[in-house]
Amino acid sequence: MKNHLLFVALGAVLAMTAAPAAAECYADYKAKRDNPLRLHYGVIALPDDACASRETAAPVIAQRISDDGWTLLDVVSIFGAAELDDEKRKDSAGDYYLRY
């Protein structure tokens, strides 16, 4: 009985530590498309492994937006969920708010 409880407790601890942490990070970026020249500002959700810096976020963003012919110009900033509901950010991004 004692061993059974020990295994149940150990299993519960392992289950809690194995669950991935939901970092919920986002970035705002600037992009362009040529012929004719078009620019846009956007906000994008990032996977946890791209949240460390603007440099780690850049290839993820560039790949996603390139499917629609956009070229990444700059990763402006990386921020958390608390800053996501900024009305100024939503208004500025328009159609590119969490599009990619």
From TrEMBL:
Keywords (A to Z) from UniProt: Signal
Signal peptide per UniProt: 1-23
Highest taxon of source: Bacteria
The name this protein goes by in its record: Secreted protein
Protein species of origin: Sinisalibacter lacisalsi
Native organism taxonomy: Bacteria, Pseudomonadati, Pseudomonadota, Alphaproteobacteria, Rhodobacterales
